[in-house]
Amino acid sequence: MIIDELRTPIVLAPMAGGPSTPELAAAVSNAGGLGFLAAGYLSAADTGNRIAAVRELTGAPFGVNLFVAGVPTPPERFASYLEHLGRTFPLGEARFDTDAWDEKLDLLTADPVAVVSCTFGCPSEGEIARLHGAGSQVWVTVTSVAEARIAVEAGADALIAQGAEAGGHRGGFTDQPEDDDTDPLGTLALVQLLRSAPDTSAAPIVAAGGIATGAGIAAALAAGAAAAQLGTAFLRCPEAGTSALHRDALEIDTPTMLTRAFSGRRARGLQNRFILDNPGAPAAYPEIHYATGPLRARARADGNPDAVNLWAGQAHTLTTELPAADLVRTLSEEAKAALQSALSRTIQSC
């Protein structure tokens, strides 16, 4: 497993939509972690160009993240929501696409990378076999034990255990509003459940969600994870493509919340007026994502934090503005110190 070969058990979360850059992925890999490129919303050609750019910057292993294709949502389920938004905001076409899933699979089997991770679903056994045949490991994002079982059965090499604390989109296989009343699992709870379930306990686990410090990494490792995946922690690095508006907002102690208002799929971001004004946004991804593109673009151009998605995890106030390599080194040292401190504590027999 590539996790066992890393100098530090730190994985860069793939952050689609701007923050993910070749420079950020390469910096994390060069520092001893595992950098990731987000291929979400990119064409296969653009993905290939970014892979080439990473290879110009590092000879170390890195990964690419793909969005698993979903199914179209009937327009009648979201038409009234978009009609409501259109009275105030500029909107685009509410369209469905597969995020070039087949084309990106073809690319990554012809030009493989060390790891292909998947979000929003599990590839088929045949698709995983194709990636294995090309020499790539396949990691699947899961939010429950049930999803983990499906991923293991399909042949996944590792499970990315995404807790509810994570910023950005929930990476699970489904997004059903009727499930909203069920409290989603946090990161440590999910890691422990996966490690204890007989049919998932052997799979390496990458813990993701709410981890912003070395102590958080240490906690995930102690709970049974093989590595920790961090995203929000890297948003303020100079190598990240994070907008100035987003960077500034991360420094403010603003609560986060889950919302479908911007994309039609549950995601965690900094609370703002748009999210609060649209609590009942329907589940329709990626249709609503594309429809709200113009309103989000205008808000960024206007410097308006109340009408743009500012994805962030619950621990966003712990982020720092450091070069990615320095951040990896700092987190690694903090994790070692936290583990040593925990081991130094005396636990008496009861």
Descriptive terms for the model:
about 350 residues; 14 helices; 3-stranded antiparallel beta sheet; alpha/beta; globular; single chain; 8-stranded parallel beta sheet
Question: How is this structure best described in words?
Answer:
By secondary structure, this protein is an alpha/beta fold. It is built from 14 helices and eleven strands. It is globular, with a radius of gyration of 19 Å. The chain starts with a helix and ends in a 6-residue tail after the last helix. The model has no long low-confidence stretch (mean pLDDT 97).
Write a brief structural summary.
With 350 residues, this protein is α/β, with parallel strands linked by helices. It has 14 helices and eleven strands. α3 packs parallel to α5 and α9 crosses α14.
SS-based class:
alpha/beta
Give the N-terminus to C-terminus distance in angstroms: 38 Å
Number of helices: 14
Report the biggest beta sheet as strand number plus sense, adding barrel if it closes: 8 strands, parallel
Q: Spatial order of the strands in the main sheet?
A: 1-9-8-6-5-4-3-2
Tell me the fraction of residues in β-strands, as a range: 5-15%
Shape descriptor reads globular
